[in-house]
Design brief:
The complex is a heterodimer of chains A (366) and B (249). Chain A has 366 residues and is an alpha/beta fold. Chain A folds into two domains: 237 residues, 3-Layer(aba) Sandwich (Rossmann fold); 115 residues, CBS-domain, CATH 3.10.580. Chain A has 16 helices and 16 strands. In chain B, helix 1 packs antiparallel against helix 10 and helix 3 packs across helix 6. Classes of the chains: A alpha/beta (366), B mainly alpha (249).
Amino acid sequence: MITLGNVSKRYGKTWAARNLSFTVEEGELCCLIGPSGCGKSTTLKMINRMIEPSSGTITVAGTDVQDVPAERLRRSMGYVIQSIGLFPHMTVLDNIRVVPRLLHWDDTRSKKRARELLELLELAPDTFGGKYPVELSGGQAQRVGVARALAADPQILLMDEPFGALDPISRENLQNQFLAIQKELHKTIVFVTHDIDEAVRLGSKVALLKEGSLVQYAAPEQLLSSPANAFVKKFVGLDRALKRLSRLLAVDFLHPANSVERRVAPELLEAEFRRLEGSDCARYLWVTDEHKRLVGWLDGNIKTGSKVNMFEDLVEIDLADMSVRPDSSLKQALAMFVQQSVVCLPVVDDERRLQGEIRLADVLES
Amino acid sequence: MTEMRSRLPRIVMLATALAAFVLLASWKGVWEWLFSSLYPNQVNYLYPRVGLWILTWQHGLLVSVSSGLSILVGMGLGVLVTRSFGRDFLPAVNSLVSIGQTFPPVAVLALAVPSVGFGAKPAIIALFLYGLLPILRNTVSGLQTVAPAVREAAMGMGMTELQALWRVELPLASKVIMAGIKTSVVINIGTATIGATIGAGGLGAPIITGLASDNTVFILQGSLLAALFAVIADAALDIVEYRFGLEKQ
């Protein structure tokens, strides 16, 4: 969708971008990251010609951006900046309608679209539509900023540290919301950030820049598991193994779980334990109710010598403390493994139904 | 509610000033009634040569033409020197216009008369130069207060330079620009009285005549009406500003 070919930008003797070549595929969220002054913002701004490259070509959907008038090019791309830049003299609705109006949409259509977008970003249109930017909190203002960028339904979004100025809680909320929106809309996004956690969390590709040059361009998993050189290794940090886990989902490491129903006959229970012996999670026999909902577990280690009694030995489980969701990250799972000192965790869905189990050994090997 | 409250004093002010002006300009007896006890020796209580309404009309013409030019040129220059291509000229234009204001209008009159002759023209040139600075200065500072992020957003959305100026920068700077225009116009109304010295007429005429013939009532006639004129213009501009919602931000 977006291809940079040998793009360079020089300011006097310094290179803000040096022979950059990479392609962002359609529907991909590419994070440009690097230390400050590495040229990530410059690179972003060359895509919509806010900055003109000194040499090289940038093509968008096969067309050289130099062949399109800058204004028309920009109207076809959403643009979000860290300082948000909402127009203080316009209401929230009018701010969102800026690009549709530049494109001569009729009023009813642009108003309808602006309201839809406010809803998408979880801002009630009736409450927020008529407000002025000064009346918004930072998080709300940046939501409006994102809505404004999406207004004319562009295929491409350019985002320059959009969540950089927000407090950690609003930032995480907005990141989650943004990921959910992207899952639905499949825009091609170039996203500048200096926060490696954000890049790993959001990006489907990460381009790491240093002094204007591209150091590594890879999927975040790859960046973390096989950093190209010492600089990358240092940049992603010593906890890169942990960061990697934040991108891996429990559902991909699911094992079938050994479980019995609560009202199982005692002799069948014995047989179940015997069958389990020797396997990785031999100690844990998950217990469910008649609807396959997880209620607790039985400890395989106490069975020798004594008879297991379902009612005396059942360890009830608080799902918040000892279970993961299929879409939980392995990082979250690892925290739970450590906290509970267990080697196996049950995976349950939204209705508490047991889906399987994940094992500490898999997390460590991943 | 708050809108009504903040707007009312302005309307009252405008109405009062207007009423006083009409009274003083149309009812000839009022001057005699007001000043016969103060200055019993005066023969004439009313400037005899031209009617006050005609003087007011002349004055208004001087002010509106010169202020109109000041607004046009001042805002135009202000916009030009804040564009990327004109930024280099900012200091030069600034000092040029400052000279325009420090140069006394009387001297401008004296210099202009030989080249354009007597009458309204030299007065308009002098007033135009004198009124330029507040408008230019406020246009520049108003446009400079527009946050860079807002400009970046405007360009990034795909506005042309002209659209960004018209839809974003000027509306945001409008309050400061309007303040400059008000200052300029009010000063202009006072200064326009010197136009009478070179035959441009206006409310300065009774003042000059009064000075020459030692008639204080004439002087008061011209200056009172000019002062009221200024108050009316200020209040009217206030209301214009309000009507266009420039105070909203």
